[in-house]
Specification:
Elements (H helix, E strand, L loop, with lengths): L2 H11 L4 H27 L11 H11 L4 H15 L8 H34 L2
Length: 129
């Protein structure tokens, strides 16, 4: 490995100080609270549940997956996404397929941040009891 590759690896694996960790925990709490506030807005009907993205090539890809003749391919992709997330997927509709894809993508690049969503959802569910 070159010196610059070693340095990059060190930077990615550096844990930081206790102060950095405390600051990260505060940021995580604030992020979770922000998610919880948005969940409340969605539950109250003050915020939309829908997501949108402008991406022609991906729109074409998803449209092709929706066609009956590509059901096997769609099912294979959905099953792979489900395996990655540890959930059972049974013939998802377009919206579900896109949500699974986003969750896998976020899990890959922002797993700790996605944990804040899980915590907010647990707290939201606990409110109902």
């Amino acid at each position: 490995m070159a010196d610059d590759e070693l340095e990059e690896l060190r930077e990615r694996t550096d844990r930081g100080s206790r102060l950095d960790t405390a600051s990260g925990e505060a940021d995580s709490t604030e992020f979770r609270e922000s998610i919880a506030a948005h969940l409340d807005e969605i539950d109250a009907g003050d915020r939309q549940k829908t997501l949108s993205a402008w991406d022609g090539p991906l729109a074409a890809f998803v449209a092709a997956l929706e066609e009956d003749q590509h059901a096997d391919r769609r099912e294979a992709i959905a099953n792979a996404l489900g395996e990655e997330l540890g959930v059972d997927v049974d013939d998802p509709k377009k919206s579900e397929l896109l949500a699974l894809t986003l969750r896998v993508g976020f899990q890959e690049v922002a797993g700790e941040d996605l944990e804040a969503l899980r915590e907010a959802l647990r707290e939201d569910a606990a409110k109902g009891f």
